[in-house]
Fold each of these.
Amino acid sequence: QVQLVESGGGLVQAGGSLRLSCAASGRTFSSYDVDWFRQAPGKERELVASVTRSGSLTLYADSVKGRFTVSRDNAKSTVYLQMNSLKPEDTAVYSCAARQYYGRKYDYWGQGTQVTVSS
């Protein structure tokens, strides 16, 4: 069993930065690929960034490419999302999700953390 807990959200001005963390319990975290999602009020959930279990491959949505960086530290069972040059349209609840097999449903979800970017 793996539990995911996000932290690091908050209120920031446009142009600012935040670093989100997705901390996992359990000793098998390195067996999971992890994705970051976000959902703004009235909008569909959006896949923001992905990192493979080894951390060797990362992918980003076009809307955040060049501004967000996803990384992981398997020794700490934590995945990070560094968000720079934040825009008001980045305001959303950010959640992480983990799965062992690409294309299959996610095995675990975090509860989410609110990010609010003021103009």
Amino acid sequence: VQLQASGGGLVQPGGSLNLSCSASGMVFSDNIMGWYRQAPGKQRELVATILSSGEIGNVAASVKDRFTVSRDNAKRSVSLQMNSLKPEDTAVYYCNLRQGGIVFWGQGTLVTVSS
């Protein structure tokens, strides 16, 4: 399975960005997709996950009221709509897919929130 993420960039505080990630290869119908992030000098942390059914999995408390995760099973994709961005949201965001006990990672896309 390969994951290709896009949509990162530079945005001012209070702005919005939408990240997208497409999966290719042997993708099972039953999987969990989501987003993690890693800020400079910090450990990678979960942002949000979503099940194949569309049910939201886990969402970090720090983004719960600002970020929305969604998926399109037909396109094998997962998206992250990020609103009201803060400087502390600056990080490399990684797309993630879990299936059959295996975890796959995308290459990461940089989000910088700065004025």
Amino acid sequence: QVQLVESGGGLVQSGGSLRLSCAPSGSIFSLPTMGWYRQAPGKQRELVATLTSTGNTNYADSVKGRFIISRDNAKKTVYLQMNSLKPEDTAVYYCYAWRNANYWGQGTQVTVSS
């Protein structure tokens, strides 16, 4: 069982930046895909960005050019640098990982004030 631990959420003004981090607790061999999803109030959970261990990225159109996903394979940690934040980016952000099954973090709140 993989447990993902997120950090870095908070409150920021529109146009500001935040950086999210996520790492698995305990010992695990590898996580081929890691990434981030988000869920705003009253909406379905949606993809933000994913990154494979070989460097393939996938971004939601709404965050392209503003968010950057990266990972440290040695630490099995994934990061999400969020720039030029907008109020519509307000959501709970969930860390995601895949290794033979889908794994989710507990979520971290990101609030962008106008």
Amino acid sequence: QVQLVESGGGLVQAGGSLRLSCAASGFTFSAYAMSWYRQAPGKERELVAGISNTGGITNVADSAKGRFTISRDNAKNTVVLQMNSLKPEDTAVYYCARRWLGVDYWGQGTQVTVSS
């Protein structure tokens, strides 16, 4: 069965960095685009970054552009979201997802809290 397991969340001060990792299993990882979404309290889930199946195409939401980077390792079945210069408004639960749009599987989420 498809499993997506996130790790790396936590509490960090504004301006700090976190590295979120997603370990995927149960499917042919290299055949699928992957993405990271986030959901803040009282807000809708939003796309943060996506990456094509080969890693050749990436996109980051305007709110995170220049601060966040998405990457993947198809040999290790992992996708990583490197988050730098974090802001309090980045506080949310971050979800790893299979596919970029039209997500069909979600991870359980990892909490990121940025203190001011």
